[in-house]
Design goal:
The protein is of the alpha+beta class and 329 residues long. 33% of the residues lie in helices and 20% in strands. The protein is built from eleven helices and 13 strands. It has helices spanning 22-38, 54-58, 77-85, 94-101, 103-112, 126-136, 162-170, 226-230, 245-261, 297-304, 309-318, and strands at 10-14, 42-46, 63-66, 120-123, 140-144, 154-156, 176-180, 184-193, 209-211, 215-218, 236-238, 267-275, 281-287. Strands 8, 9, 10, 11, 12 and 13 form a six-stranded antiparallel β-sheet that branches. The chain has a four-stranded antiparallel β-sheet with strand order 4-7-5-6. Helix 1 crosses helix 11 (309-318) and helix 6 crosses helix 7 (162-170). The two termini are 26 Å apart.
């Protein structure tokens, strides 16, 4: 993939921000910044929690790499501001980012489009959480509707645990999602526009969004929480996944459909559970600004496709666009 680095102009790597995932965002952004500079990009760190976004226009930034996670970065708000500033940015646009951040809206759309996702209930109290458990069965996942990185998430196995689980989730979001637990293999699969191999260059679909290799995650005691995601080395990541080839291809096909159904562009990463009893895959959520830390999964899948971390960052940056196109006159 030939990219004219000089044509990319002055680049802001947006990192930090005001969400509960600020710490991880700073790690992601620092990695992206170093990678882009290593490829000769005129890249600079920019923390929206410390500087007004209007400075991007005043200081002549030509495009932004969004390395923000969670609210005020992954939920369409920053994307909308950059649309108004007329500065192209990485990842999906305003609407897709906003929908993908809201797990309930995402699941409603996927269910309407016939895509498999675990059954769920939206609850507004501890009592409704207990009622959801009676319907969905134990174990059940209780989590905020608009958070990431498993923040505020609890796996409940009895009615006695519902009140505490609801209280924790509602600290982060007034909308709390109760979701049927899928027992089986935990996987994730990134999608990247223009991800085809050099041999794919002549194909008609070579420039479209394509799934990268699937990653199978084996966390200690099956607990893939915030700590095990970012700060421990005990979680195992299998890429190649070790899944049967037909299962891998089915997951990739499903993730590409999920990406397109929400109107995403640029890149994203979807999380999927494979039910052990019948090997049925279920979409959990899609991340429109995935992590780019040393423990992150998109760089891992990219490496398995022969794409280095630096080249991955450059490809994502080159895909920066506005909802109306790559740029407006």
């Amino acid at each position: 993939m030939n990219i004219d680095v000089g044509a990319l102009g002055k680049v802001a790597v947006l990192m930090g921000g005001r969400s509960s995932e600020r710490e991880v965002s700073l790690m992601s952004g620092s990695g992206v910044l170093a990678a882009l500079r290593a490829r000769g990009v005129d890249a600079h760190a920019f923390d929206p929690a410390e500087r007004d976004l209007s400075a991007l226009k005043a200081e002549g930034f030509a495009r932004c790499f969004i390395a923000l996670h969670g609210r005020f970065g992954e939920d369409g708000t920053v994307q909308g501001a950059l649309e108004l500033l007329d500065i192209p940015y990485t990842g999906p646009g305003v609407m897709a980012s906003s929908i993908a951040m809201d797990k309930i809206m995402t699941k409603r759309i996927w269910r309407f489009e016939g895509l498999p996702t675990p059954d769920w209930r939206l609850v507004a109290s501890a009592e409704e959480t207990s009622q959801a458990l009676a319907v969905l069965g134990a174990p059940m996942i209780v989590k905020p509707a608009r958070e990431g990185s498993t923040i505020g998430l609890t796996k409940v196995t009895s009615a006695e645990e519902c009140a505490q689980a609801y209280a924790l989730a509602s600290q982060y979001d007034p909308e709390v999602l109760c979701e049927q637990f899928i027992d089986g293999d935990e996987t994730t699969c990134p999608v990247l526009e223009g991800a085809g191999q050099p041999a794919d260059a002549g194909r008609a679909d070579a420039g479209r969004a394509q799934a990268l290799p699937v990653i199978r995650i084996v966390a200690p005691e099956g607990n893939y929480d915030y700590q095990n995601k970012y700060f421990t080395d005990t979680t195992q990541y299998h890429c190649p996944s070790g899944l049967p080839e037909a299962e891998e291809h089915e997951i990739q096909r499903l993730v590409e459909r999920a990406f397109r159904t929400l109107g995403c562009r640029g890149w994203a990463r979807a999380d999927i559970m494979i039910r052990a009893s019948d090997r049925q895959p279920f979409l959990l959520e899609i991340n429109t600004s995935p992590g780019m830390t040393s423990h992150s999964l998109v760089p891992m899948a990219a490496r398995a496709s022969g794409i280095s971390y630096e080249d991955l960052c450059l490809r994502i940056l080159a895909s920066a666009a506005l909802d109306g196109g790559a740029g407006r006159p």
